[in-house]
Each structure stands twice: as C-alpha cells, then as structure tokens.
Amino acid sequence: MSMKKFLIIPSILSANFARLGEDIVRVISAGADVIHFDVMDNHYVPNLTMGPMVLNALREYGITIPVDVHLMVKPVDKLIADFAAAGANYITFHPEASEHIERSLQMIKELNCQAGLAMNPATSLYCLEYIIDKVDIILLMSVNPGFGGQSFLPMTLKKIQQARKIIDQNNLNIRLEVDGGVTLENIGSIAHAGADAAVAGSAIFCQNKQNYAAVISAMRNEISLVSNLSS
Ligand SMILES: O=C(CO)[C@@H](O)[C@H](O)COP(=O)(O)O
Fold first, then answer.
1. Annotation-wise, does 17 bind a ligand?
2. Position 102 in a domain
3. Is the C or the N end of the chain the one with fewer CB within 10 Å?
4. How far, CA to CA in Å, does 217 sit from each of 30, 87, 138, 143, 214?
C-alpha cells in the first residue's frame, strides 16, 4: 500500500442538510482531511442535490480543509467554472458525461483546481489511456452513483489494485480515491488494495450516534493495522 497519509473524506451527502454548515464544521473538528461535495442533477444520475450556490453559502463557515466537488452531472463544463468560483479545490467528473474529456480537464486546471476523473463500477480503466498524465485524482466508484448508503461492490478491490499498478508503473502522482459503501469493515482492504483515500458518507454521518471523531479514528486504526501488515 501507498506510504502517503491515507485521506478520510466525509461525503456530506449523508450530513444533516438542515444544518449543513454546522455538520461540516463538526466533521472537520473530528479529523476529516477533505470535504466531499456530491453534485447530482437528476439527469446523469437519478437524484438531485446541491449546486454552486450552496457551496458558496457554506464559505461563511470558514471551511479550513480542501473541498472535493464530485460532479455527477451532464453536461459538465458550465458547472466547472461555477464550482471553481464557489470555492472548490478539486473537481471530478465522469468521462461519460463530458463531450470532450481533455477539454474539461484543462478547464479545471486553468481554474487552479485539481482535476479528477470518476470511474463508475463498470467503466474500464482503459479510458484513462491517453489522458492519465492530465489527471490529479482517480475516483473509483464502488457503488453505482446517485445515492448514499449503498453496499460496496467487492469487484472494486481488483480495480483498485489495477489502478494502483497503472499509477505506479507510470510513476504518476495521482491520488486514488474510492467512493461508495466504505465502512469500518472494508476500509482496511481498500487501503491494502492500494487506495490513497476513501470517501465515506453514511458510515461517518449516520453511525455511532454521530460521534464523527470516533468513527474517523476507528477508520484510521483499521488503516494503520493493514499498513503495519504490509511494512
Ligand atoms: O457519490 C456518491 C454516491 O453517488 C458517494 O459519495 C456517496 O455519497 C457515498 O455514500 P456512502 O456510500 O458512503 O453512504
């Protein structure tokens, strides 16, 4: 497994939308490394969530860690500029949703954000072939996108290993994130397979009586157990 610090990235899709700003402040104090902001359009995915106005409004809470915007929208490009202006640090989109993948990646970088490609469970890693050197983040979906609270698809473990191999063989500095169905029970295997980061929604916001610090620290413990095994 990678020697970099493994990032725990709470997905605020499972936070309390009536108190979103306060929930974000709480999860940052609990030790989150990055905030994951899921944008769904009821077109590319069958659910509707938050737009750039919401992210902009949340600035009032003084978010002190990077914001990772995951665009599950089609078309993609118009929203890239809007989210960069609203305070996104990383912007990730699905290759199937962009007319011109390379152009969308360029747009993100020109706006001084890190650029990510999100791969659905059935999307082949081959689609990275010609653009991998333009990507800062690979977000491997371990559920079909659209909803929180789904179960982790076990086939993802093999895909994490394959993606790790491609990144290492090409000597690239790409962050490998895994998103969907991440729990205390599987985060160790996800890290062991080669991920650098895990996005977790319901496991952090809906469990352990909302003691976010306890869940995040238990996740770090699981990761350290597997890193001790592999060192
Ligand atoms: O992008 C998505 C779902 O489309 C994810 O970010 C989920 O929000 C993760 O939620 P859990 O599976 O951890 O509950």
1. no
2. yes
3. C
4. 8, 27, 24, 24, 5
Quote ipTM for the complex.
0.98
Please answer whether residues 190 and 178 qualify as being in contact, where contact means their C-beta atoms are separated by less than 8 angstroms. Answer: yes
Chain centroid offset of residue 152 CA: 14
Q: For 142-176, write each residue's pLDDT tens digit.
A: 999 999 999 999 999 999 999 999 999 999 999 99
Q: At what angle do helices 101-110 and 77-86 cross, to 10 degrees?
A: 20
Going by alpha carbons, the residue nearest to atom 8 of ligand 1 is 148
Atom of ligand 1 nearest to the CA of 183: 13
| Centroid of ligand 1 to alpha carbon of 95 (angstroms) | 18
Does any domain span residue 105? yes
Helix 212-230 and helix 20-29, axial crossing angle in degrees, nearest 10: 40
Q: For residue 30, what is the domain's CATH number?
A: 3.20.20.70
For the chain, percent of residues with pLDDT exceeding 90? 94
Task: Give the CA distances from residue 147 to residues 4, 144, 160, 163, 224, in Å, rounded to whole numbers and listed in that order.
Answer: 29, 8, 21, 24, 29
Inside any domain, residue 65: yes
Domain count, the chain: 1
- Domain membership of residue 12 as a residue range: 7-230
